[in-house]
Each structure stands twice: as structure tokens, then as C-alpha cells.
Amino acid sequence: MSEIALVIIGLALLVIVLIVLFGRAVRSERRVDMLPLADESRDRYLTDWDRIEMRFVDAPEEAVREADALVISLLRERRHPLMTKRLPKELHEARHDAAMEKGDRTEGMRRAMLHYRAVVEKMVGSPARREGRREMA
After folding, report:
1. Number of structural domains the chain divides into
2. Is the pLDDT higher at 101 or at 87?
3. Residue 89 sits in the same domain as residue 52
4. CB burial class (10 A; 0-12, 13-18, 19+) of residue 113?
5. Is 28 left (phi over 0), alpha (psi -120 to 50) or beta?
6. Angle CA 67–70–76, to nearest 5
7. In this model, does residue 2 exceed pLDDT 50?
8. 43 and 86 share one domain
9. Which structural domain, as residue segments, surrounds residue 24?
């Protein structure tokens, strides 16, 4: 084999190794290890979320602001990195929809609330998983 062929094979192997290493680095950067919520915190977030959803009908803008604050608080308590690029995709979508200025603003806020709900369900638990939660009178 000529020296040129060996150099080309070596470079090809180097490129393959770099691609594999870069792929692993990107995947590990996306993964977020978070702390679990205590039962009391879970109940508090679910109660607060229910209250915020009920407010949406009468005060949609305030409900959207409260939903954003609740989600950030929830992420912070679970020790989620709050760097913009690491935030959940649904939070980015919620903020985009909530900031809608053209068209039907109420529809944008309604979609934002659905995205916020998805984050809450992912971080706290979906309604199906909350069946056994304690209710306070």
C-alpha cells in the first residue's frame, strides 16, 4: 500500500472517530438529570396549576404569566439547568405562542397554556398518574 493510501485511510478513521465522539457529546448535553419532587411539592404544583388553568377564562394574560412563572419555579426546584438552549422545547413554544401579536392573540395564549401544561405534566406527572394524589379540603 502506498503512503498516500495509508494517510487517506488514517484521515477517514479519524473523521469517523470524531463524528462518534461529537454525537455522544451532543446526546449527553441534551440529557438533563433532575432531582425528583417531594410529594408536598408535587401536590402544591398540581394545585397551583389547576388554579392557573381556571383563571385563564377570566384573565388569560395573567394566567399565561403565572403559568410561565410556575414552570420556571418547577424547573428550578428540580435543578434543571435554566440556560435558554437547555429549556424544554414546550417552554420555548409556549413563550413563542404567548408573544403572538398578529392574528388571534387569545388563540396564541390558549396554545401557550397547552404547552405549559405539557411541561407541568412532564415534570410533575400527567393527570393519569395523579389519580392517587391527596386532596386537601
Report:
1. 2
2. 87
3. yes
4. buried
5. alpha
6. 140
7. yes
8. yes
9. 1-31
**Residue 135 forms part of a structural domain:** no
Between the alpha carbon of residue 110 and those of residues 59, 60, 78, 98, 99, the distances in Å are 12, 8, 26, 8, 12
| CA torsion, ordered 70, 72, 77, 80, to nearest 10 deg | 150
Q: Of all residues in the chain, what percent carry a pLDDT higher than 90?
A: 53
Beta strands in the chain (DSSP E): none
Regarding whether 71 and 25 lie in a shared domain, the answer is no
Per-residue pLDDT tens digits for 29-72: 445 678 889 999 999 999 999 999 999 999 999 999 999 999 99
Instruction: Provide the whole-model pTM.
Output: 0.68
Residue of 4, 77, 84 lying closest to 44 (CA atoms): 77
Q: Specify whether 64 is located in the same domain as 107.
A: yes
Shared-domain flag, residues 56 and 94: yes
Grid coordinates standing for 59? 384573565
